[in-house]
Write the structure tokens for this entry.
Amino acid sequence: MPVILIIPIGKINFMTQLQHKGLISIAGLIGVGKTTLADGLAGILNASVVYEPYKDNPFLARQFSGCPEAALPSELFFLLNRANQLAVENYHNNSLYITDYIFQNNRIFATLSLDDRQLAIYDEVEAAVLPVINQPDLVIYLYDSPENCRSRIISRGRDFESSISCHFLARLSEKYEELFNNWHICPLLKINCQGLDFRTKEALAHISDLISQIPPFTPHIKQ
């Protein structure tokens, strides 16, 4: 049975608040199953999925292959596209949305990919877009070993991901653990994905049931 960690915050019934409206964001390593889970939960919860725009990033393949000149434009592409996708004005009060990423992905990848000069430029742009970002009502953090995630990456056969190593995934995993060890924005479900296949009805029903069991919490204030 996967290890589940639930971090509650507060006083308002979670499912009552989340029903038919709000934002669920799914986080985790490349290849852990974020998009598969997002698609599956969307069918159960009658939600719309907002996908990470990796297919549209013209710099991503060169960034993954180790080209330093591609790192900053690639990270700024993701930052600005996610800022647009997550802008508060784009979310309707009576709709439920699921993203297959969290906005904090940007910071994690930027710190691993950019030098100090590039990171300073990134910081300026990030500071400008942060005030308009819609924060999630729930984060689902999927985790698995770098080796298992690397195996899934190879199986799906995306050319631009072929250079992703277990070493890089391990560094990413450390950054995610640091982030969520200090998480306070909203409730967090931490799910060990070993043995779970989010393409099955059983796995999706299990996650949906866990969401329904989240204790009450005090929601963050959305600007």
Residues 6-13, 218-223 have pLDDT under 50 and may be disordered. DSSP finds nine helices and six strands in the chain. The two ends are 39 Å apart (CA to CA). The beta strands are 4-7, 22-28, 48-50, 96-99, 138-143, 188-192.
